[in-house]
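Reopening this ticket.

The earlier resolution said the output was attached, but the attachment link was broken on my side. Pasting everything inline this time so it's all in one place.
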Amino acid sequence: MRRLGRILAKIAIVLVVSLLVLEGVLRFMGARLTKKLEAQILRPYEQRDCMTFLTVGESTSAGLYVQGKDSYPRQLERLLTQRYGRPICSVTPVHFGQNTSQMANRFDRYLDTFKPHLVIFMCGANNTWSLEESNIGWFIDLTNPDLFWLRMRLVLDRFRVFKLARMTLYDFHSWRKVARDDLSGRAQNTPWPPPDENVEFGTRNQKAFLELWKYEVGQMIDKARARGAPSMLMTYPAYYFPTVADFEDLAAAKHVPLVRNDLTFKPLLAPEVVDKYFFADYHTVFCSIDIDELWGENTLPYTGRMMIPLLIPGLAQAFPEGAESLHYSSCEFQTRVTEMKVITRHDSPDTLILIEVPVLPGAAQSFPRNAIDYALEQNLFAEKAYPQQSEQAFATYQSYLDRGAKIPNLRYVGRHAEFKYWGMPETVNAAYQKALAFPSV
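Inline output:
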């Protein structure tokens, strides 16, 4: 019995030491990666000798659902550059679906790295449901039954090993896609829509979340001021937490300017304007672009293709009985070999065949740069060619259909919009057939 106990104790010690070593390795690798990524962000600003302003916020600041150039920081950047006649650059750390704790936990590094001349805050709307890294435990009554559950979750979330285990458990097939962000210690997203328990917890503790918001944003304002960077607050155009009154109180307490976006956007939020924005005045709205791109995202998984031309001298006919193509299957992927002589009806003593090889997303990084440049120039390479036939892929596609259901006259037509491979004639015919379902104009 004692021997078994010693063996178990040794196993436990080895396991703990291994986890600590792995934690250290992950943190070291993450720190190097983060430094490299921030250097890439900073390089263009250094080359342009910019005056820099830092925008701290969530998806509303990063420009969700619009092109990057149309986000408010980029528009402000252009207006200020035009007005003052010198390069003025915006830096917007990406905090989609995240809370002010995640911003505050990284704010010192933002100040050190980007050295902003001005900091603009429009943040806090996600605090009550986005709980990753949240410091809400500081503001909850010790008798609150939620406290133990919350603290345990937040303590575990500080460890890269725990993140690796969680990521592998919930997203085993595509975990490498998010590994760089998760293991580098960058802020993590809460799933959307948020879990019911998050929403219920936020509703029960809204007063505490408001105190957390005031504390964290106030701390960031003080830190920026200590570095010589003034700050300003902006209300949201239409969100209701924190309220406009909360923004006004914090701006007065910290003696910083407040921009009332709620007043600026009020005319645009009138029902007749919003309805028109969502295409209600149109008979039919056809979407023929990638359905994920319609929402400003890029999450649908596709298989790409590389076309390899091969000229065979002295071969009169490559395939038997005039066949155009031959397919070779292996699991999900097919490699197709096409004889161009059959397609073009070109008679020659030599034969040109095209070998179409399927490639996974990101494959361009594995080919020599000159090969990819040539392939792109000759239209021999495409990152997106065929929708991946997997349960996860179709579930993702269905989530986009559900999101677009609020636009009743929206119809998806085309190769990527319907997440399947088809040609131009089928696309045009599908649009026509779907239009027939509507009453005549």
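Reporter confirms the inline version is readable. The domain at 2-269 is CATH 3.40.50.1110 (Rossmann fold). Residues 172-187 have pLDDT under 50 and may be disordered.
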